[in-house]
Design brief:
The protein is an alpha/beta fold. The protein has a single domain, classed as 3-Layer(aba) Sandwich (Rossmann fold), CATH 3.40.50. The chain is 39% helix and 22% strand. It has helices at 7-29, 46-55, 67-76, 112-122, 142-154, 171-178, 198-202, 210-217, 221-233, and strands at residues 37-40, 60-64, 81-84, 97-103, 123-134, 182-185, 189-195, 240-252. Strands 1, 2, 3, 4, 5, 6, 7 and 8 form an eight-stranded mixed beta sheet that branches. Helix 1 (7-29) crosses helix 2 and helix 5 (142-154) packs across helix 9 (221-233). It is globular and about 60 Å long. The mean pLDDT is 95. Residues 38-130 form the Methyltransferase type domain. Belongs to the methyltransferase superfamily. This is Methyltransferase domain-containing protein. One of its GO terms (biological process) is methylation.
């Protein structure tokens, strides 16, 4: 799936989550000074920014298939090697990076198996490949759970994002193992986002970003209003916070030493 929305809309919709999640992902993957790191599916650059803070822009590369996201990422992080392209054909040589990361990307790859193989290829022997994806299979990402539960209350046939790659416990780890990584494992990553009120929760869905936004904009106006009202009824009045759990796994590229 490609993303055509402007970067500022993506920031309102998912950037508020991907910022703190990027910190948690970089911690869990062991990113530290002196490493050369790649951000696969960088979007407007939330994770890229955290990597730049840790290792310096000259040691960070990033790539995204959405040209407008890659452009903004490059503007926000001058000195980083930011390119336009997909995970399935990464434009770097074998063994170029110490750590290769994919944050909330696996489910949107055209070919996740090939994407993971490419991540492994460009990581050095002994290097780390890691990924995380929201838990939409069991509802651990409260923002999406609220939306899709409301959608299914109006239409029980709605599938939502429950069956997408990486969204179930163990799925990412299985893909890393299938790609030949060793010592695969990792605990879920959890972040929390605060909302000043319901409108701040709802408006970003109307931007049409991702499966939820596309689903919403595909509904007639009356059904959109029903879905909004159903979501509204399930959330508190005034400010509130929502937790978000992402499944995470990391593995080591064999062949070091």
């Amino acid at each position: 799936m490609s993303f055509a929305a402007p970067a500022e809309h993506y920031d309102r919709f998912m950037g508020r989550y991907s910022g703190p999640l990027g910190v948690a992902l970089a911690d869990a993957a062991g990113v530290g000074p002196g490493m050369r790191v790649l951000d696969v599916g960088c979007g407007p650059g939330a994770l890229t920014g955290e990597l730049v803070r840790r290792v310096g822009a000259e040691r960070v590369a990033a790539i995204d298939p959405a040209a407008q996201f890659a452009a903004v990422c490059g503007e926000r992080h001058p000195g980083a090697d930011v390119r336009v392209g997909g995970a399935e054909a990464l434009p770097w040589e074998d063994g170029s990076f110490d750590v290769v990361l994919a944050c909330l990307v696996l489910l949107f790859m055209d070919d996740p198996e090939q994407g993971v193989r490419e991540m492994v290829r460009v990581a050095r022997p002994g290097g780390t490949v890691a990924a995380c994806v929201w838990d939409t299979a069991t509802g651990g990402m409260a923002m999406f759970r609220t939306f899709w539960d409301a959608a299914r209350a109006l239409d029980p046939a709605v599938e939502g994002e429950r069956a997408m790659p990486g969204t179930a416990d163990g799925d990412i780890a299985a893909r890393l193992q299938a790609a030949g990584l060793e010592d695969v494992g990792g605990d879920p990553l959890v972040v929390r986002v605060e909302y000043p009120g319901f409108d701040d929760f709802w408006e970003p869905f109307t931007y049409g970003i991702g499966p939820a936004g596309a689903y919403l904009l595909g509904l007639p106006a009356a059904r959109q209003a029903e879905l909004r009202a159903t979501c509204r009824a399930s959330l508190p009045d005034g400010p509130f916070g929502l937790d978000a759990r992402a499944w995470f796994a990391r593995g080591t590229v064999p062949g070091a030493g």
